[in-house]
Structure formats: C-alpha cells, structure tokens
Design goal:
By secondary structure, the chain is mainly alpha-helical. The chain has eight helices and two strands, in the order H-H-E-H-H-H-E-H-H-H.
Amino acid sequence: MSGGNYSNEIFTTLQDRFNLNENQLKNYLQQTLNNLNKPFIPISIFSHKLTPLESIVKYLKEEKNLTFHEISKLLKRNEKNLWHTYSTAKNKFPHKFKISSNDLQIPLDIFSNKIPPMKTIVKYLREQKSLSYHDIGILLKKNERTIWTSYNRK
C-alpha cells in the first residue's frame, strides 16, 4: 500500500468518524498543528511566593533559556521591566522550579494582553478548563475567595 493511499484512508476515516467535510478536517488539523508549536507554562510554577509575572519570567529564563528580548516579544512587555522582574524573582525564590510531567499546562500566548496575569490564569482555568474557584485555589495555593475576586474584578 502506498503512503498516499494510506493518508487518504486516514482522512476518510476521520471525516466519517467526526462527521466533518474536507475543509473542516483540514482546518482542525491545521489548528492542532499550530497548538503543538505554542509554548506552554506548567501550572505548578504559580504556587510559589512569586507574582504570576515573576513566575512566568523566571520559568522562561531558567527553564526555556530564553533571552529577555525573546521573553519581551512573547509577553509584549518592556524588556527592562522583565529584567527587573526576573531579578526580583531570583531574590525571592532562588531555587529551580519543580515541574512534574503531569502538570496542567497553560498556553503562554494568553498572557500577551494588558490583563493582569493572575486574572488571565483564573479566567483561562474557569472558562477553558471549567474548573471551580475552589479547584483553582488548590492548584495555585491561594484562597478561593482571592480567586473569585481576581476573576470578577473589572
């Protein structure tokens, strides 16, 4: 059996199984490939005594070995401010993050807006992952009332 025929069989099977037309299937596969290339942040980095932004910058710098310029492009924030944020984070938490392989992952691109990082995290976990305030509080090691306030603040 040639590779082309096998690919066609896979496409046909997926179209039939999920009741998709050819364009819908192509769009779905393209979106899936795009998501595979997106950087993600493990939720466990937010459970330390750092601000969410400090956690993100420290993770990207130390675990992903990104430069401050690269981080500033990803987060759409000022490079000098990120350097200061990292310096503060290192002083507050000089250890490496302990990340487990089964950590819930948050897409990094949700942070490239003007919404405060904590509100962004809570909004994502509530709306995309359907987690309760209580469950979010446990994940982030924060009081669920703090989580509620963060979500509902204008």
